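Hey, can you fold this one?
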Amino acid sequence: MDRWRSDVVIHAAAVTDVDLCETDPELAVAVNVTGASRVVELARRWDARLLYLSTDSVFDGLRGRYADTDQPTPVNVYGRTKLAGEGRALAVAGALVVRFNVVSPERLTYWILASAESGKPIRTFEDVRFNPVEVADLVPILVGLVESGLAGVYHAGSDLTVSKADYAELLVRHAGLANRAVITRVRLADYPMRAARPFDTSLQVSAAVLGLFPMPDLEAAIRRLARGFMSTIRTVQGGKG
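Sure. Predicted structure:
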């Protein structure tokens, strides 16, 4: 990395498996805190702009619609280590910290759509709420913030706050799989997990972000994700034929 001498350093690496962080806190600290400290050292050495990608999980989820001025109150090891990483990043002059919850074609989205397509049961939480931003909508926001010269903590998110169950139902509907999907709405209390989960981590999008970009449209992003998945499925099925 010293050979590249980058003008901007984007720190996106983290252990994001919430239960793994809880059972192996030493790993979580090593990556999310110590790792962030080492990236900070590099940014200082190069006099580079630092962008640290953080999470809505720094909040306790008791009320939602958190502003970037609200005091973080994480409820698990993952949230605490990401908050500590934020602190390391903000020690660099001009650093940016952006909090968000992201959705993409992988992980949750793929699991929901693949399960719906194959008729497998989908149990998803009706009392866990967020306003995620899709990767394709997030990237230009991150680039715009870096180019703007702004520093400090900012929130990014979409225009729509939904539960995980709402998100699943929107996905399968836009994929044309509503008749095949077997979705069961469950509550967080019914499925105890190793790490505590916040109920509502929806974020108020920062005024500075809204000054640069329109509010991302979550339902439009869900349509793109659903259509992309179905197009891939048809391609694979056509290849088999």
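The two ends are 46 Å apart (CA to CA). Let me know if you want another pass with a different chain boundary.
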